[in-house]
Amino acid sequence: MSFKEVKASVNLVLKLRQAALAKIFQFENLSGKNNWVFQIQRVPRVCVLASSSRGGTAVTAELLQWQGANCINSAGRLLSLPGEEKPHLVLAGFAYPSRDEQFDDLNELDAKSINVSTLFNEIRSEIGYPMEYCGNLELYAIQLYRRLLLQWPIDLALIDINESIVRLTKALQVTFPNGYFNSLENRRKVLKVCLSCFSFIHPSFYDCRYYDAKEDLAAHLSDGCWSFEETPFVLPPPWQNATAADLEKGCLLLRDPSNAWRLPFWRAVFQRQEFEILHLVRDPRESIQGLCDGWNYPFGFQTMPSNSSLDIKGYTDNLCEGDFEWKLNRLNFSICKDLKKKLFDEKEMLSLVQVCAFQWKDAHDSIIKVCKSLKLSPRIIYFSDLRGNTEKTFKNICDSFKLEYSKSGISFAQSFNDHWVMVTPLAKLYGYNRWKTSSFSNEIIELFFSGYFDEVNIKLGLPLSNESN
Fold first, then answer.
1. Within-domain flag for 394
2. What dihedral do alpha carbons 172, 175, 177, 180 form, nearest 10°?
3. Which helix (H) or strand (E) holds 163?
């Protein structure tokens, strides 16, 4: 599917997602008052999980999602989306290819667009929290259908909506005769269900893939391939949509890494709400290694096309058999306006490590700068603390944002290291210190000890170049 095809399919996908949402209304009391869409304005608090790409946002956001699953007091519940905000921004015309600008930045002027109502509608349709168990597999089938529309829009739109949902429902009922209980293994079973229903789905593009399929990638990674949701795709668990009462008391979590350059936009969109920042910080050397791995991983993280061939040492000069030269026209992860200018307009010669270092540094610089200008006091959380003492750090986050220590949140925290599915292959095997021995290690170490990160590290409370070993 080309960029033009996806851009042209926006209205159709919105229509199909709304039709599927109407079916969800049959199972949940979501109608409330007449102005259902703008009930999202009732939420009293908004929290943005802000970080760089490969900063740990995916697994941290999943931990925080599960905080909301079985809270006793709705006032202490965190409300979230099954995935990142990017697909909803694309559908509402705020992100490429629905808009022409090839960068992720959004500001307060963008928030004045009439498209904000479409964005509210999209977010409101999914805001809620995960279910540990779901016995209504038809409901889950409808939710899966809405997600698959973001991942395979052109192919799925060619199949009748009712037929698609029936296929998914029957396959789920066969696979889960006693209902769906959440686990990584069951997520993988759900992927197999989707594969059995739709032949156009390719498992390698999913975060819960059960193997790395050796496929012919030419048709999928050639210049112009696109979807609304960025790869790696997610298949979320069954989801409980927030009621009007939930919104009146809960706290909404936003968690896309590109929000580092969208904070003014979200502050303007939610100008009436109490607005808080959870600034997640990971050692730059770990993040840069993860970014380098992701740039070179063919099944995910591609976010922006290049109109001309790229020349990035460690990326475009590392074409293995089967790459089909897709790297020559694809940028990865969050692309801010300044990085777009460097690579597209000025055609600055940068190595992959330099590009990834810029992505890490500029994200945190932007978060710090915007928090200061908006007079926000961010709560800094170190990913090393989450990794080393998850339950204690989870409780500290809950205390900071007046959230309940829910049983589901504690349970997820206690099994935190088993949930790292959003990683490139072999990353777990070599661990978070793989930057010390990878093919990029010498350049990463040299850049770190040059003092490149020292200024931002001081502000973030991270070690300086002369304090590390």
1. no
2. -70
3. helix 161-175
Burial of 437 (0-12, 13-18, 19+ CB in 10 A): exposed
- Stated pTM of the model: 0.93
- CA–CA separation, 451 vs 357, rounded Å? 12
pLDDT tens string 356-411: 999 999 999 999 999 999 999 999 999 999 999 999 999 999 999 999 999 999 99
Q: 251-254 and 78-79: which strand pairing?
A: parallel
Dist. CA 246–CA 76, nearest whole Å? 10
Per-residue burial over 333-344, b if 16 or more Cβ lie within 10 Å, else e, is bbbbeebbebbb
Task: Report the first-to-last Cα separation within the chain, whole angstroms.
Answer: 47
Mean pLDDT of the chain: 88
In-domain check, residue 8: yes
Retrieve residue 252's tokens. 């909404």
Token pair for 4: 């033009």
- pLDDT surpasses 70 at 281: yes
Q: Which amino acid does the sequence have at 212?
A: D
Strands 330-332, 302-305: pairing is: antiparallel
Is 262 within 8 Å of 105 (Cβ atoms)? yes
Dist. CA 118–CA 88, nearest whole Å: 9
Percent of the chain with pLDDT over 70: 88
With vertex at residue 222, the alpha carbon angle to CA 217 and CA 227, rounded to the nearest 5 degrees, is 90
- Give the structural domain span for 235: 1-30+128-241
| Token pair recorded at residue 343 | 């690579």
The answer as to whether 39 is a domain residue is no
Question: What's the CA gap between 137 and 139, in Å, rounded?
Answer: 5
Q: What is the CA radius of gyration of the chain?
A: 21
Return all residues near 352 (Cβ < 8 A) that are at least 6 apart.
292, 295, 296, 312, 313, 314, 315, 440
- Tell me the β-bridge partners of 281: 382
Residue 267 has what DSSP assignment?
H
Q: How many domains does the chain have?
A: 1
Question: Would you say residue 60 lies in a domain?
Answer: no
Residue 268 and residue 52: Cα distance in Å, rounded? 22
422 burial level (CB within 10 Å; 0-12, 13-18, 19+): buried
